[in-house]
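Here is the promised in-class demo. Please do not try to memorize the tokens; focus on the logic of going from shape to residues.
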């Protein structure tokens, strides 16, 4: 793996992301339990989650937030096929309304793993919010309850998503040229 950053091309601008995140907050606010818990799947979702909770605050919703680190990728652009729990949440989810927030839905394995774990621990309701959905790439039957943008089968970076640790801090979403 080379250390040079691959060429990229803008896919979704900062303005479009901001507008859609506000829209997602409106959708979530319509049916959110007063005392719901957001479980953010790290690392990729931290930028999205930070904007989403501020957008929720603007529409009067104040969830609790916890973090879980799951790993399915190595450092390349292909999923390894198995999900590992690297770091767990500390909140008790029994009887709670949980919203799992992740950056991107591809095979569905990461999201399914997180949702199954929340249900196994007794969460009363488990919903999902994804910034991006790579439609047509699913190997597990799972869909997002709230979805920011549908994209095709391309590897994207920026706004928290990385390619071998590159481009995580990019303020917009770009496609890696392959
Ligand atoms: P899944 O388990 O195959 O659905 O993959 C989801 C996880 O893989 C996401 O949480 C991301 O961390 C990572 N991922 C999938 N596609 C991309 C991409 O295009 N860019 C960066 N990370 C990705
Ligand atoms: Mg991820």
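The designed amino acids, position by position:
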């Amino acid at each position: 793996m080379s250390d040079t950053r691959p060429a990229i091309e803008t896919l979704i601008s900062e303005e479009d992301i901001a507008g859609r995140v506000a829209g997602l907050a409106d959708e979530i606010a319509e049916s959110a339990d007063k005392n719901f818990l957001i479980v953010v799947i790290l690392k990729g979702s931290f930028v999205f989650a930070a904007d989403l909770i501020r957008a929720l605050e603007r529409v009067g919703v104040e969830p609790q937030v916890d973090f879980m680190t799951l790993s399915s990728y190595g450092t390349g652009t292909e999923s390894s096929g198995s999900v590992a729990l690297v770091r767990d949440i500390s909140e008790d989810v029994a009887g709670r309304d949980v919203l799992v927030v992740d950056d991107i839905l591809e095979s569905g394995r990461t999201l399914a793993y997180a949702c199954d774990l929340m249900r196994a621990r007794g969460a009363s309701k488990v919903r999902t919010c994804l910034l991006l959905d790579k439609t047509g790439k699913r190997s597990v039957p799972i869909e997002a309850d709230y979805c920011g943008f549908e994209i095709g089968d391309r590897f994207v970076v920026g706004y928290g998503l990385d390619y071998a640790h590159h481009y995580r801090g990019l303020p917009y979403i770009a496609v890696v040229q392959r």
